[in-house]
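We modelled the chain as a single entity of 419 amino acids. Its sequence is:
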Amino acid sequence: MQQETQLRYEGLIKDDRIHGSLYTDPRIFEEELEKIFYHGWVFIGHDSEIPKPGDFITRSIGRQPVVMVRGKDGDISVLLNRCAHRGSTVCAAERGNARVFTCPYHGWTYDLSGTLLSASYAGAYDQTFDKQAHGLPRASRVGSYRGFVFACFGQESMSLDDHLGSAKKLIDRACDLSPEGEIELTAGWVRHRFHANWKMLPENDTDGYHLGFTHAGFIKVIQSQYENFTVDENKVDGVLRDWGNGHTEIDFAQGYKRPFDWFGGGPEGKFAHYLSAMEQHYGRAAAQQRSFDGPPHAIIFPNLFLAEMNIVIFQPVRVDECIQWHTPMFLKGVPEFNTRLLRQSEGALGPASFIVPEDATIASRNQIGLEARTPEWLEVSRGAHREQVDSGGRRVSHLTDETTNRGFWRHYRNVMDAR
């Protein structure tokens, strides 16, 4: 049997264009799962989702079901949700609290660390049966940064600190909007199924070029800073940023005219308690600056979107299908904001919202269009001639350029050709 030729991504991803098969070839999708999701760092959840020992949530890494659980000692583990006996998922609930995990098929029971406690009717196994060899597989590494929990099932990947790199500042920007320096993801998650390749989601979410067209209705109805950024197309103001390692950002802060524009504005008295608490924690100057700058709008490669006051997860399913998860980002210490944040999340990302239905429609149209085999290549060259490098070493450019897409694809190519 003739062995298939190994794909080389340097031939599919150029500095100014990418090949359409990257979205449609099932072989490429399978390699992505293996190299990006099963051997690299992937966002799983937030530690506020499992505050007490025994608390757990179930998620997916690619197609692999996992359980994120807090042990009796307070440590967090990420376990493959697969019984070592016949492969059934041992945990069917999306979240809960457990003392042990028991497989519903044949009753094998595991502790919170994944160790097999008992195989039912164990007398049928002789002395060669090793319970230690039949536990729930654990992620080889689990790391956390400011409550954001990441897991890696591969042994050879870089450290989480190296993976996040300077983009840790984006997570800092989100957390530092709380007067206690922490966020909480306690509202539950909404999921939308996209009939599109998963990579279209991180590409789209830091693409400023589509905003005035895909979301034209939103921009007309809601006061936005879009026109402030596009009135002078030749002004390269550093709104787009490539942070390296596939992490990308649109920084809307330069378009805000007043404190709390990012929160919909309102009378100053509404924010008095919040500002007072922020000043006590960070000092007056920092508190005032954060009231102007607001939250990040950024991708942490490969599957986390810091969507301003929302947190989003991308879950690949098939080459032409993915699921987007979203939940509002609550600020610890400011519970009076939660109801408004929940309503804003529904309005921006819910099933009848301004944003997600339009993005989902465009993504599905992209996927359909890509089945046409010509032209073979897609353009990502916009604004390449006017990119600049800022003092932090990041590539920056105009809102409508494709700097962030090029940054995503550069890192993707490195990862896919490295292993």
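As a brief sanity check on the tokenised model: The first strand starts at residue 17 and ends at 19. The CA atoms of residues 335 and 341 lie 10 Å apart.
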